[in-house]
User: Fold this.
Amino acid sequence: MLALEFVRTLIIAIDGPSGAGKGTVARSVSRALGYRHIDTGAMYRAVGWKANLEHIVLDDEAAVARLAERAQIVVEDDVVTIDGHDVTRAIRTPEIDRAAAAVARLPRVRQVLVERQREAGRSGGVVMEGRDIGTVVFPEADVKIYLDASAEERARRRAADPAHTGGAAGQAAVAEAIEARDRSDTTRTASPLTPAPDAVRIDTTDLPIHEVVDKVITLVREKVGRT
Assistant:
């Protein structure tokens, strides 16, 4: 365990594509440090879920941005609510995967949610995961990590996860969905998925989770040692 009295204000950014292990690693690191864990992707998922509920067309930027502005979104302790609805499980479906990718492409929606993410994390003591944390949300983050893995491994992980596949799914179908999400994330004009220039890149393809977590904790220790 780190000497937490000296590191409570650090901001740790963990970015990467679908299936790279962001969520599992971020939760484990946050527990090890006694930090808060914020899954920013869950915010986009919640907005996509609410837009579907209200029959808002997902490419209607103005309407989706208004929804994001008025919505009360809470992401805390792995529980996600929007306007009082617990959507923790409801947002982990293939349908909401697609909805999240669609709303994440809308610059006005990103503007609204990025400001909320900054407000939630600026006091530090946080592990924030997403796709643009180290590049846009907190370019000044103390520790920046970019997780990646081979396309085959990421598809395998998602195919084995009923929360994302909605049940037994062929790996080829999941791979196709991940490829589509990657294409959407890396080509959008607003905050495209890309490693921050000063991020430490970790390939998780052949690494067990505990080794990835150990690597991140080591980077935090090194950061503390330099301050």
The longest strand covers residues 143-148. The two ends are 18 Å apart (CA to CA).
